[in-house]
């Protein structure tokens, strides 16, 4: 027996933080022991890398360095937190995981999906979530929500231009169509309650096990 590993993905402004809280509450209410975590981050080392990669100081990272930093943070997170929790039969709910690296660095930055997956194979043994929920909104609506949320204070990656965020959105749609069993695209429009219900629908088979 192993716990269940769930990741939640989406571009900027899709309401992911609100839905993370609602999902955590629902999974706990279903009687599962739950660890909630995030990427980049989740362990002290990975949080240090998070600060490095998201901070707006200096001239910034090259695309290759950025991809390696996310992979390095993930390697620490997987081996020190995620795998041990799963081995203790806990559920792990992670705010972003490998599909963010595929969408942001692999597709939108043009580093390539195979290259990102090769880094993941080396760093994290290629670990994939049991289920990935992608919050999907038309990019225009997501941009509008992110502007309100960040009030002009977005980080280095969140602050990239609209064509970058459109590429991220398209990448998540493509990944979900390639891996429909694992990756479920969920319509993030409408009230928070309706979106939570849609997300839980996509987890019900795992919650019932
Ligand atoms: P965060 O403040 O957690 O943003 P959000 O609320 O949108 O999740 O910052 C994470 C940022 O890092 C976000 O812009 C997505 C980006 N990111 C990548 O580019 N690659 C990755 O592998 C991960 C995990 C995140």
Question: How is the topology of this model organized?
Answer:
Blueprint: E1 5-10, H1 16-29, E2 34-38, H2 44-54, H3 63-87, E3 91-95, H4 98-108, H5 113-124, E4 131-136, H6 139-150, H7 162-178, E5 183-187, H8 192-201, H9 204-207
Parallel strand pairs: 1-3, 1-4, 2-3, 4-5
Helix pairs in contact: 1-8, 2-3, 3-4, 3-5, 4-5, 4-7
The structure holds thymidine-5'-diphosphate.
The site of thymidine-5'-diphosphate has 14 residues, from helix 4.
Compose a concise summary of this entry.
The protein is α/β, with parallel strands linked by helices and 209 residues long. The chain has nine helices and five strands. The radius of gyration is 16 Å and the shape is globular.
Report on the biggest sheet: 5 strands, parallel
Poorly predicted residue ranges: none
Distance between the termini: 11 Å
Rounded mean pLDDT is: 94
Q: Domains counted in the coordinates: how many?
A: 1
How many helices does DSSP assign?
A: 9
């Amino acid at each position: 027996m192993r716990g269940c590993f769930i990741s939640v993905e989406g571009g900027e402004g899709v309401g992911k933080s609100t839905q993370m809280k609602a999902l955590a509450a629902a999974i706990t209410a279903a009687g599962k022991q739950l660890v909630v975590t995030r990427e980049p981050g989740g362990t002290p080392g990975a949080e240090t890398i998070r600060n490095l990669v998201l901070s707006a100081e200096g001239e910034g990272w090259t695309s290759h360095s950025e991809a390696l930093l996310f992979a390095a943070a993930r390697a620490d997170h997987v081996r020190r937190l995620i795998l041990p929790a799963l081995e203790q039969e806990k559920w792990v709910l992670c705010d972003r995981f490998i599909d963010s690296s595929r969408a942001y660095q692999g597709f939108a930055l043009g580093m390539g999906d195979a290259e990102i997956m090769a880094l993941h194979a080396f760093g994290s043994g290629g670990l994939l979530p049991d289920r990935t929920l992608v919050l999907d909104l038309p990019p225009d609506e997501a941009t509008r929500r992110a502007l309100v949320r960040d009030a002009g204070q977005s980080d280095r990656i969140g602050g990239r231009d609209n064509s970058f965020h459109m590429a991220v959105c398209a990448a998540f749609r493509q990944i979900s169509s390639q891996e429909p069993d694992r990756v479920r695209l969920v319509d993030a429009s409408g009230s928070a309650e309706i979106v939570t219900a849609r997300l839980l629908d996509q987890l019900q088979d795992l919650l019932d096990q």
